[in-house]
Design a protein that fits this description.
2 domains, three-stranded antiparallel β-sheet, D-Maltodextrin-Binding Protein, domain 2
Amino acid sequence: MRLGLKGWLLVAALGLGTANGAAADPVKIRIGWATMPGHLIPVLYSKPEILKHIGKSYIVEPVLFRGSSPQITAMAAGEIEMAAFSPLVLVLAVNNAKQDVKVVADILEDGVEGFHSETFLVKKGSGITSVADLKGKRIGTNAIGSAADTGMRVMLKKSGLLDKRDFTVVETAFPNIPPMLDEGKIDMGPVLQPMSGLLRASGKYDLLFQTKDALGPAMLVFLAARADFLEKNRAQLMDFFEDHVRAVRWFTDPKNRKDAVDIIAKFMKQPPENLSHLFTANDYYRDPYMMPNIPSLQRLVDLTHDVGLAPVRIDVAPKYVDTSFVEEARKRIDADGKK
């Protein structure tokens, strides 16, 4: 199930095109996302004053999903043009769904030195002190094939545990993981920030492992797009990515941190103090120009194949990569900075 966030669809009245010759009618871009505040996507377009082209050459509709894997079906059905993919989901989209997709931008990287890595928690006193202790247990996951799910399965397989034979997977949305741990409906699950920090500070939960323990530093989530959509709307999308990168840079700029956290807190309906991890060492790493880390992505694709999660191994570059949009965005942003 997915929910369209129409409230963030921003259209400038009477937009008549851009100086670089983009079409008069703005192209509509529906972008899948799954978690906040990690993905940032539903708030990036909420400050039109920092965006040069919104409503003129493009409009945006963020679309919420439970994880990366459901976005494969939505993209195949033409319901979204871009998606927040994990490495395993890219392989499944290419190999199983036969989609022609391109990796176009970074979203977040996990376990980069000095930054956060996703946590997998158990209740204190559960008797689970090692991954081996999960044998016969129930394990929560947000969506099979998602970024968190991939890290979890790699860790379990490295410890000799196999799905169905050694443990039971319970699929549920991220917000349901903590209460299900409390109620004993699952024995372990991935808990994202800010809830991870709050639960660990309570003293009622133990950290069993982190994604970096399974994958090392990893480009865990990236923006992928349909190749035909990229080619058909290249001029407009150059404008979109300029704004997209500008927005990420505004949100992650230390001088804007209070305003950025306030915007995200309002969207998430949480007090700002619950989001104290944002844009600190307790948050994910994000490339300053949203350049995807293709070597890291390839390493993860290889790893998912090695442990039997991915049916085939694919070479990500050059066939499934197009960094021309974020490269152009960097040129434009850097040129403005020199004026």
